[in-house]
Amino acid sequence: MRAKWLAALVMLPFALVFCAFQVAPLVWMAVHSFNSEIDGWGIDNYRQILGSPFYRQAIAFSLQITFWSSVFGLLIALVGSYSLRQLGATRLRTAVMSFTNMTSNFTGVPLAFAFVILLGTNGCVTLILRRYGLLGDFSLYSKTGLMVLYTYFQIPLGVLLLYPAFDALREDWRESAALLGAGKVHYWRYIGLPVLAPALLGTFVILLANALGAYATIFALTSGNFNVIPIRIAALVAGDLELDPNMASALGMFLVLLMVFITLVHQWVMRRSYTHVRA
Question: What angle do CA 14, 16, 21 make, to 5 degrees?
Fold first, then answer.
């Protein structure tokens, strides 16, 4: 009993910090999201978000960039993690994992600057591709360009999250499947991917959250001129034209509710998969 009280006492500072920097801001944001500067208390902020084409466009752009960058990042990370696992305990794998760990933190202004140098209007890769007619109408500052940028910083995080999941795949399963006449496609369809499904779903949810709330990179790249939810929130809190922290709180709660919905769907799918496995 004394050990439990001592552990609780040690955790008390962490609990206080967590409440001060996580719970309290969330409660403040939830309460003020129902306070409109024009109409007072109510759901007018949410009604304005859903009724405004401008805010609906921000929501659509955010969801599109988030979803596709998470899908592409997950697929590339899956292939990369499997390839690293196949390398075995080599120096190359150690070097690649160290590089991946480093690049997972390469975001914000440095990442935007790097992409401007590479794929900007006069970037070195852009000039090379344009010279040979391979670029088309691609623009780094468009929705497609932002998907490429987001996918890039999703890949290292996806590799770090998926790489340990391959420990669950035992080599004797592959050998047994081969002895029973199963090819590589059948092995991955009926054994490999079902075993990796929880890790894939969990990684996908984390990548969604990582992209949905990204702000520094897109702001540094577009100077706040691209219409996505984080840019709109920042403009309402610290913009030069119109300040409305209550509307920003409503937009922030929209992101929170969206992530809660995604998490609940993830948990529901996981429960169904576990139930199916037990059956």
Answer: 95
Output the pLDDT for position 75: 92
Q: Out of 164-168, 244-248, 270-274, pick the least confident.
A: 270-274
Structure tokens given for 163? 């790489």
Domains of the chain: 53-278 (1.10.3720.10)
- Taking the CB of residue 178, how many other CB atoms lie within 10 A of it? 13
- Taking alpha carbons only, the member of 12, 9, 46 closest to residue 255 is 46
Average of pLDDT values for 142-151?
88
State pTM to two decimals.
0.82
Per-residue pLDDT at 127 exceeds 60: yes
d(CA 128, CA 145): 17
Rounded-to-integer distance, Cα 56 and Cα 78, Å = 33
pLDDT digits (tens, 9 = 90+) for 53-109: 888 898 899 899 999 999 999 999 988 888 888 777 778 778 887 888 777 777 778
Per residue, what are the HEC states of the chain? Answer: CHHHHHHHHHHHHHHHHHHHHHHHHHHHHHHHCCEECCCEECCHHHHHHHHCHHHHHHHHHHHHHHHHHHHHHHHHHHHHHHHHHHHCCCHHHHHHHHHHHHHCCCCCHHHHHHHHHHHCCCCHHHHHHHHCCCCCCCCCCCHHHHHHHHHHHHHHHHHHHHHHHHHHCCHHHHHHHHHCCCCHHHHHHHHHHHHHHHHHHHHHHHHHHHHHCCCHHHHHHHCCCCCCHHHHHHHHHHCCCCCCHHHHHHHHHHHHHHHHHHHHHHHHHHHHHHHHHHC
Instruction: State the angle between helix axes of 44-51 and 245-278 in degrees (0 to 180), rounded to the nearest 10.
Output: 80
Q: What are the backbone angles phi and psi of residue 183, rounded to the nearest 5°?
A: -85, -175
